[in-house]
Amino acid sequence: xxxxxxxxxxxxxxxxxxxxxxxxxMTYSWAGKDKFIIDHTEVNPAFNGRxxxxxxxxxxxxxxxxxxxxxxxLCPFAKSVFEKNPDLGDVL
Length: 92
Fold this sequence. Notes:
Blueprint (H helix, E strand, L loop, with lengths): L1 E6 L3 E8 L2 E10 L4 E9 L8 H16 L2 E4 L2 H9 L8
Parallel strand pairs: 4-5
Antiparallel strand pairs: 1-2, 2-3, 3-4
């Protein structure tokens, strides 16, 4: 599974792909210079049950840690990943 980040002006997304097929996408919007909001996570039904959504959230966490910024998980799925994994709380 390959995760890529596409940065746009005030928004962006992380995309999971496998063999040129999009497995999932997680979108975000910037809320200032030091935090971003995860607003939506979507997984291709063909990839359900393979942890694609969690991989996307973890990619966002890695990005936030590297840039020393914070995440606001408004997306219900992303919020549940943070609730189930307290070790990710440093980026909240």
